[in-house]
Amino acid sequence: MDGPRLLAGLDAQQRRAVTDPGQPLCILAGAGSGKTRVLTRRIAHRATEGSAEPRHVLALTFTRKAATEMGARLGALGLRDRPTVGTFHAVAWAQLRTFWADRGRPVPGLLESKVRLLRSLPGRALAPGELAAEVEWARARQVPPERYAHAAHQEDRRVAAPLEQVAEAYAAYEREKQRRGVVDFDDVLARCAEALESDPAFAAAQRWRFRHLFVDEFQDVNPLQHRLLEAWRGDRPDLCVVGDPRQAIYRWNGADARYLTRFADDHPGATVVELTGNYRSTPQVLHLAGAVLGPGTSRLVAHRGDGEVPTITAYATDVDEAAGIVAAARLAHPPGARWDRQAVLVRTNGQMGLLEEALVAAHIPFRLRGADPLLQRPAVRDALRSLGAGPERPLRMALDDLDALAEEAEAAGATDRAGDLAALARLARDLDLTDPTAPTSALRGWVGHAVGADGPGRGGDAVEVVTFHAAKGLEWPVVHVAGLEDGYVPIRHARTPEAEAEERRLLHVALTRAEDVLRLSWAATRTLRDREVRRRPSPYLTPLSEARALLADAARPAPPEAGLARARRALADATASDPPRRLRAALEAWRAEAARRVDVPPAVVLSDRILAEVARRAPTDVDALAEVRGIGALTLDAHGAALLDVVREHAGAQEAPR
Known about the structure:
GO terms for molecular function: 3'-5' DNA helicase activity; ATP binding; DNA binding; hydrolase activity. It comes from Iamia majanohamensis. The radius of gyration is 28 Å and the shape is globular. By secondary structure, it is an alpha/beta fold. It has 30 helices and 18 strands. α15 (about 285-295) runs antiparallel to α24 (about 540-555) and α26 (about 580-600) crosses α30. About 45% of the residues are buried.
């Protein structure tokens, strides 16, 4: 593909990101801004102009799916040679095997699953899935077993066992790997970095082969991956990274977004380009997604026309919420449409059970992303295995055991595990009501039937049920976001400012998955372990509700001459002898200009009713402005100073009535 065709259809920001000669280069790409398109076209553009040879390009991603998509896009651009595109782990493993083979060393076996090995260890402190997560976090942060307890305490890690016991289990895992002669994926990254750092010939060979480095989703890089990247790079400046600090949602798993946010400081002379255009979502969706981050935090500008105003619905119970979502999904599914145009997003795996049951009952096909079916989740598998140990007994005798397991997980802050066990306990009680003589062995089959684990609708055209984390990188025309309650959003164990900020970013990611329709909901009561628990709405619903109110005002019919032209005409007609009229016209002119700058309807900035009240009162300080009905903290932060400047300049002798 020639140069002009590579640049066709790009906006000014995207064009600069593709063509800027700067090295190193950091591209800050907001949600829906076309980052993959920009990254692949930059590789192709550099190949076309001769500043990069495709066979010497290494493009790094975090998932095989992302690598496959990027490779397909690069192939479609018609490059003479194919760049190497892969995950950190895949590229490192290929290099290590070559390194060992060239030196006559045996290649160790690759451990595909930490959980399987951990399950075989006696006396482990945690369930295998939870222990694997702690080991992965420690390895990502380059924390050995002897320093785990201290580091985990410093990071406020919430686990269901004393940290010292987790450290002992971590050490036992490392010893068992060594005894078996196997390495895991974390070892692959660490050993590749060690080889590059200690063997100049190996480092020179790899740096010759991969001269041009590109990294996607750079906000998700962890310290171990960054160490390997720097070992690949050496002292060369040819590095291009793409990421979005507003989508940094994996700190809990060891990622460190500061590699992105401090890129210019860490790489003196680096060029930074920002992409703020959003081509995915309507202005209404973006307005809410920006509100959850706070005023001035999100700079995304919609490049689509107006859409529906998002809805926020409060339900009496979690059962009502699940039924409401199912009803809304049916309404959003006209004849001939596909079910996979819709997704239901939840914060935790444990919230999925009730939604699965409601979808099965309504005969709506669905599939899960970000969580295995209930039967495959570690907490449920461990519980069923425990119930099956020993002689057969009536299920009724095991109900209290299931409740106790869920309570232990909740007390330890293991929210996902507690939710999964609560779902299992609820299904066990359903079976007991249906068949009071059922043995414990019948529970596995009942769970599979109740949530459709082996039923139809798991593939093909189906509504997606997705965790917030797993939704990243995906998009749907219609998105239902469920369970917006304190304790879920933000999650209960997010107690530090850093963790709370990540929870805001996580909700921002969830909201920006919607293209056209966004539906938010929460329940005032949830049934947890057979008892009703009162719930509070998420604190993030306050700014979201304010933002939605502005959108609702903007959606009302406006006078024929609404907008910038009307405001300017009114200001020109106003006279010095009519201060109230002059102030109203000045406020309308300010509002229209503010709306034009961010490409939203004027009433999104300030509704007609609120603007009229500001003109009537003419407040001259923040306290007086805050008394105007409808002006909340969000509006004060975003526009308070500008509003007061307009009032002071144009109010004249007008008195503000009290």
